[in-house]
């Protein structure tokens, strides 16, 4: 089994007000937490998928940069572009760039599931919420993704509905899945640590 780690980092961060992937938590930029969780789990081929405006700001020797040929088309486009660019991997472990509490243990657990899986997608569920941006996608998803994009369907939901999916349940309060959409979200994490 071969695997690529794919950190999605090409969004507009419109709710945050500035490119949130470059914000810091405990002195480390958000996107680096995703890279470190992948690297420390044994995923050696790691890529940051981003756009040409943001690309020069990423500084991490563990990851290569993939610049999308078209910007701001959403995570399904970013995943399909990564799959078209990286053709020698079976699995693609997708992580968002705004999850500073993601852990090596979580990534390792998910990778173990992929070793024997016959599914196209392995997706965590926390409570009743699917987590498509902390999930594993097999290269076999690419034709479905391209078909959906040709129909201008850009969300991950139609891909999940069409593919053979394994769901993995995690606690609804598991920290790995806490993403930062607003500046208040970061303040909330910091305040929890203090109290």
UniProtKB/TrEMBL annotation:
<keyword id="KW-0460">Magnesium</keyword>
<dbReference type="InterPro" id="IPR029044">
    <property type="entry name" value="Nucleotide-diphossugar_trans"/>
</dbReference>
<comment type="similarity">
    <text>Belongs to the MobA family.</text>
</comment>
<dbReference type="InterPro" id="IPR025877">
    <property type="entry name" value="MobA-like_NTP_Trfase"/>
</dbReference>
<keyword id="KW-0479">Metal-binding</keyword>
<feature type="binding site">
    <location>
        <position position="98"/>
    </location>
    <ligand>
        <name>GTP</name>
    </ligand>
</feature>
<dbReference type="GO" id="GO:0061603">
    <property type="term" value="F:molybdenum cofactor guanylyltransferase activity"/>
</dbReference>
<keyword id="KW-0547">Nucleotide-binding</keyword>
<dbReference type="GO" id="GO:0006777">
    <property type="term" value="P:Mo-molybdopterin cofactor biosynthetic process"/>
</dbReference>
<dbReference type="GO" id="GO:0005737">
    <property type="term" value="C:cytoplasm"/>
</dbReference>
<dbReference type="Pfam" id="PF12804">
    <property type="entry name" value="NTP_transf_3"/>
</dbReference>
<feature type="binding site">
    <location>
        <position position="98"/>
    </location>
    <ligand>
        <name>Mg(2+)</name>
    </ligand>
</feature>
<dbReference type="GO" id="GO:0046872">
    <property type="term" value="F:metal ion binding"/>
</dbReference>
<feature type="domain" description="MobA-like NTP transferase">
    <location>
        <begin position="5"/>
        <end position="162"/>
    </location>
</feature>
<keyword id="KW-0963">Cytoplasm</keyword>
<dbReference type="InterPro" id="IPR013482">
    <property type="entry name" value="Molybde_CF_guanTrfase"/>
</dbReference>
<protein>
    <recommendedName>
        <fullName>Probable molybdenum cofactor guanylyltransferase</fullName>
        <ecNumber>2.7.7.77</ecNumber>
    </recommendedName>
</protein>
<keyword id="KW-0501">Molybdenum cofactor biosynthesis</keyword>
<keyword id="KW-0808">Transferase</keyword>
<comment type="function">
    <text>Transfers a GMP moiety from GTP to Mo-molybdopterin (Mo-MPT) cofactor (Moco or molybdenum cofactor) to form Mo-molybdopterin guanine dinucleotide (Mo-MGD) cofactor.</text>
</comment>
<feature type="binding site">
    <location>
        <begin position="8"/>
        <end position="10"/>
    </location>
    <ligand>
        <name>GTP</name>
    </ligand>
</feature>
<dbReference type="GO" id="GO:0005525">
    <property type="term" value="F:GTP binding"/>
</dbReference>
<feature type="binding site">
    <location>
        <position position="20"/>
    </location>
    <ligand>
        <name>GTP</name>
    </ligand>
</feature>
<keyword id="KW-0342">GTP-binding</keyword>
